[in-house]
Amino acid sequence: MADGFPKRRISAHRHHQQPIKALMFSPNGRQFASSSGDDGTINLWDGEDGARRANIQYSPGCHLCEVDVSNSMLAAAGDGGITLWDCKTLNPIQTFDGFFTNLFFSADGTLLAAATNSIITVFNVKTHTAIASFETDSEGPDKMAFLPDNSQLVVWLIEVDSDENIFYVVTSFSLLSEEQIRGPSFEALMQLPDMPLWHGVPVWVNQERDQYYLEALFSQHDDPVPVLWIPRELHARQLVQRRCMIAILCAGGRIVFLRLPTTATGTVARAGYDGNLSYGRPFQQIVVAALPYGQNMHVPTVLVRNEVQEDEGLVEDEAGGFTS
């Protein structure tokens, strides 16, 4: 990788007979799980040396849609419901009936959010009970995240407009009142462990037609605004975001790594964060005020030349293997 990032391949494996459909790390990074949706195979890996720890089979004859792993549990979901395994003993712990396509553990591993189409259910995996259920008017969630105190579930919902263009809307649900909240606040987004920060301001990937971009929520605004555009010439297919970096999977299997400036000097200072979550200004004023902060910047084209790496990073191949 460019800009001083070290390049070191930890391991390479080809244990999946089908293409890898899901890959998730535990919060402490000590283990991760990969799965093939077609054959229901789940592999559990050691996060330190990349060695495979276990091969687990999802419900026979059922389609596997998603996996997630906490520091102590592995979860798998599909049309055969949800199954939980103990990561140490590898014994199944609990099952939940239903059809689920998305999963997400809370940071402490006590809660599990699961979604199917427009319905999101939150389970307490310690008591093996469903504690909340939310119905949305969307196509379902793209991703989900719990606040550290488990009081809210922040969800990036998939929306489709009248022209069938896909975009994402961020909202949150209170686990105390079981009500939907109109968009998470600046303060709430700043609490998310994996929330990408652009100069100290929370940002995330969105799209308009075939144009991907980063949008940010400034402390004095009610609505997010675009701050950086991803060049169309990258031919982005999928984006994965974490605290200080965004990985862009491009056509042909190439990966671009976008490193985010995380210091709070500059942008967040100019945004004027003083703990007041919103000044309630009209949308037109929001756009005008936001332009000096981000200038709707494009990713420098040098990224295409220096940081697009062929056959490096985590790349799915036809044999269902991956490298890291």
Quick summary of this structure?
With 324 residues, the protein is mainly beta. The protein contains four helices and 26 strands.
CATH level-3 fold name of the largest domain = Methylamine Dehydrogenase, Chain H
Query: What is the CA-based Rg, rounded?
Result: 20 Å
Span of the ends, CA to CA: 13 Å
- Quickly give the CATH architecture of the largest domain: 7 Propeller
- What count of structural domains? 2
CATH superfamily of the largest domain: YVTN repeat-like/Quinoprotein amine dehydrogenase
- How helix-rich are the residues, as a percent range? under 10%
Q: What low-confidence regions span 5 or more consecutive residues with pLDDT below 50?
A: 265-324
Helix segment tally: 4
Q: Topology as H/E string?
A: EEEEEEEEEEEEEEEEEHEEEEEEEHHEHE
Beta-strand share of residues: 35-45%
Outline: globular
Strand order within the widest sheet? 18-19-20-21-25
Mean pLDDT: 76
Total strands: 26
The CATH class of the largest domain turns out to be Mainly Beta
Protein structure class: mainly beta
Largest β-sheet summary: 5 strands, mixed
Pfam families: WD40 (PF00400)
Keywords: Repeat, WD repeat
